[in-house]
């Protein structure tokens, strides 16, 4: 459990169109943003503190997804996750330094009556996943390593492997580079407990101001198939973050069909649904 002492955070609404597809846009009607393309909020999916209630359950697993008992609408949410060092001054976050990145599945249930985003994100152990292959990050400024990468995802049922999310460039995020980091730092310090959002600074204090955060920076848009097909027991979820200058979409699709990925320039996450 390499991230047991790391706070887990996610960015909601950082890929145009995803919230609408996931049936979550209405949750954020009352959330005011600085501009039309700004993400809506950050949310906790894991807090290393017993005071955090259900969020203290460690949910990450790189091999298995265990659905909740009443889930008939479980979806893959393909993302990039950043492992960041957190810098503080007198209890305030002053900066984030991303050091590694990986493929991430922010597996979510559609829960119409959920008051907070986090209620859809952590329903127990083995409920979301991050790849065991983390790639070193030079920086998150324009022109960095991550700019070359793309996000792909696939769903396997029986012998059929289908593309689940749109194959998307990482630079296609609405907020990225320093703009994203500055926005996350602001939300960590100043986000209020309003609507679906939560006060993150309280969780940071409860966790004793952890030195690192694992931050998923937003899910891609679904293909038509992904929007209408939900995970069932026996399925396989595949999320791949790959160097788009090194591999073609066709090569990645072939690797997904074989469930065997090259070791260089790829972070892959293959999870069986229990």
Write a brief structural summary.
This protein has 274 residues and is an alpha+beta fold. 15% of the residues lie in helices and 32% in strands.
How would you describe this protein?
It is a single chain. With 274 residues, the chain is an alpha+beta fold. The chain has helices at 18-21, 177-190, 200-206, 224-228, 249-258, and strands spanning 7-12, 41-46, 64-65, 74-75, 78-89, 92-105, 108-109, 129-130, 135-136, 149-157, 160-169, 212-216, 236-243, 266-273. The strands form three sheets. Strands 1, 2, 5, 6, 8, 9 and 12 form a seven-stranded mixed sheet that branches. It has a five-stranded mixed sheet with strand order 3-14-13-10-11. It has a two-stranded antiparallel sheet with strand order 4-7. A hairpin with a 2-residue loop joins strand 10 and strand 11. The longest helix has 14 residues, at 177-190. The model has no long low-confidence stretch (mean pLDDT 92).
Tell me the layout of helices and strands.
Elements (H helix, E strand, L loop, with lengths): L6 E6 L5 H4 L19 E6 L17 E2 L8 E2 L2 E12 L2 E14 L2 E2 L19 E2 L4 E2 L12 E9 L2 E10 L7 H14 L9 H7 L5 E5 L7 H5 L7 E8 L5 H10 L7 E8 L1
Distance separating the two termini: 20 Å
Q: How large is the share of residues in beta strands?
A: 25-35%
The assigned structural class equals alpha+beta
Mean pLDDT: 92
Q: What is the overall silhouette?
A: globular
- Gyration radius (Cα, Å) is 17 Å
Helix content range:
10-25%
N to C succession of SSEs: EHEEEEEEEEEEHHEHEHE
Number of strands: 14
- Low-pLDDT stretches: none
- Count of helical stretches: 5
- How would you sum up the major sheet? 7 strands, mixed
């Amino acid at each position: 459990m390499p991230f047991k002492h790391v706070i887990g955070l996610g960015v909601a609404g950082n890929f145009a169109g995803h919230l609408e597809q996931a049936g979550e846009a209405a949750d954020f009607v009352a959330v005011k943003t600085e501009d039309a393309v700004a993400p809506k909020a950050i949310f906790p999916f894991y807090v290393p503190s017993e005071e955090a209630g259900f969020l203290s359950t460690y949910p990450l697993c790189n091999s298995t997804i265990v659905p909740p008992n009443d889930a008939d609408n479980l979806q893959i949410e393909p993302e990039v996750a950043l492992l960041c060092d957190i810098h503080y001054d007198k209890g305030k976050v002053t900066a984030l330094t991303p050091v590694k990145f990986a493929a991430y599945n922010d597996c979510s249930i559609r829960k119409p009556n959920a008051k907070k985003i986090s209620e859809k994100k952590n329903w127990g152990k083995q409920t979301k996943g991050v790849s065991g292959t983390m790639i070193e990050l030079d920086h998150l400024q324009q022109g960095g390593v991550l700019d070359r990468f793309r996000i792909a995802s696939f769903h396997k049922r029986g012998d059929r492997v289908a593309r689940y999310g749109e194959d998307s460039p990482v630079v296609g995020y609405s907020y990225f580079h320093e703009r994203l980091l500055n926005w996350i730092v602001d939300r960590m310090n100043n986000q209020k407990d309003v609507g679906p959002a939560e006060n993150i600074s309280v969780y940071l204090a409860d966790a004793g101001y952890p030195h690192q955060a694992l931050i998923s920076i937003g899910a891609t848009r679904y293909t038509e198939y992904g929007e209408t097909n939900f995970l069932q027991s026996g399925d396989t979820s595949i999320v791949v973050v790959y160097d788009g200058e090194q591999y073609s979409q066709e090569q990645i699709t072939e690797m997904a069909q074989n469930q065997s990925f090259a070791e260089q320039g790829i972070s892959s996450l293959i999870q069986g649904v229990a």
